[in-house]
What does this fold into?
Amino acid sequence: MQLRTQNLTKNFGDKCAVDHVSLTFERGVYGLLGPNGAGKTTLMRMLVDVLPPSSGKVTLDGITIGELGAKYRDILGYMPQEIGYYRDFTAKRFLQYLSALKGLDPRYANRRIDELLDLVGLADVKNKRLGQFSGGMIRRIGIAQALLNDPKILILDEPTAGLDPNERIRFRNILSELSEDRIVILSTHIVSDVQSIAGQVILLKEGKVINYDTTENLRRLVDGKVWLANVSHRELNELKQRFPIGNVLQKDDHFEIRIVSDSKPLPDATPADPSLEDVFVYVFGGEEE
Amino acid sequence: MEKNSNEDEHIEKLFKSVDIPQITEKQIESVVKVAADYLPLGRKHMSLWDMAILELRTTSIFFWAACAALMAIAVLFISSAESSFSAAGIFIVVAPAPLLFSLLEIMTTRTPNVIELEKVCKYNVNQLYVLKIMIGTVLNIVVLALISVFSLHTLNSPLQMFLMGSTIMLTIGFLALLIATTLGQSLPVMGILAGWTIAASMLFDNGPKLAMALLSIRFTPLLITLLVSTMLFVLTLHSFSHKLTSLSLGGT
It folds into this structure.
């Protein structure tokens, strides 16, 4: 199975949100990383066919997803950034409703819904109305609905936002298991999520793909460029003007900081092992994640 | 022949020499269940009836409560009306309300986020929206029929009143859909509901001649008006369903 985008472009008036993006997805987990406004959500909406591209196309095994229509949606699972729901529905009824819209057999659907509610830790509140759910619980419902039809292509927009650390770990593990025989594409602001589960990472900036590689290869981009240093508050402010700064950790009377720089930024700076977060800082500079 | 029987004996001996374990039904069932997980999912063809049931499920309790309250109040007011003219006035005022409630409900509960989720499902959601409005229309007709039945002794020519009510419902529904399709907001639809209530009340209060003329429209012209309003309503319903599903999603 091969999902491809060819010169995919989306314009909103004068603004180009996605600019001639050509990517190929095969089995595995793909992480979309980029600052706010990079075009991640727009790209995902075009991949799931809810937003028509201004130009270019998305194909599955050579056939455009528009032509495939219901056949494509049959194997698609999608979790949008903002989960829409009916406030009066209970969790179970909402999933039953979406199962019916997905054309699932009710007997299969009921079994699957119980499994998924258990998986996302909502089995105890399955008869509670969604209007009473917290943001994190709604996201878990969003994850469950995306998995209802056992999709072969799973597209998740910010799936871990609002989940507590335990839930995030559990969700990451679920995704890793699922990726064995399907295409999983996820966008997230949490770089560590991508680092732990995505085999391939796509870096997006202003609608363009600026890098697309394995996490390992991307880390090599900043090999020998990540430095640890202990600085005072005044030095920190000065360094912020000169270098992209990663983690800042406050110690007793100083700050321990990670600097990404081609050359040694301070005489007493020591080299550190690069992480994907360092790549993000290096590529996107001080831009907001 | 002899060779074959020797072979059979040999196979029999082999079977006897091998210890074949007994497998319980439960074990077979669990293996089949695991295998079933690897088979394509069971799919179900959704009939119009299934879709209608689905749509009824998405309807909020407030909608049902509003319709029930409207019907009860209308029957109460019509029954205690001083004249058949006043009774007809009340009937005309409430005529398009359930359909407009239904339209308001669909526009306020089906947010772009809900539509985004529904659009990635297998079925064409345009059909669902058409069906939802159709349910509202049928419900409105039922409400009008029930009010007519409960107010038989107060209303003059209930059948004609029922046709008049249906024509008004479809005409106001057509206008509401047209505005909803053009502006894509629920507030103007609320305005239409409020505007119609005020205008119809004023007509029966201050312009009895015009109101009388309206009530005295004969059966055939009424039927023709009903047909025309039905056609207009169906056409705008079609474009409304497409407008609602053509998401104006932004985001990056």
Summary: The mean pLDDT of chain A is 86. The domain at 3-219 of chain A is CATH 3.40.50.300 (Rossmann fold).
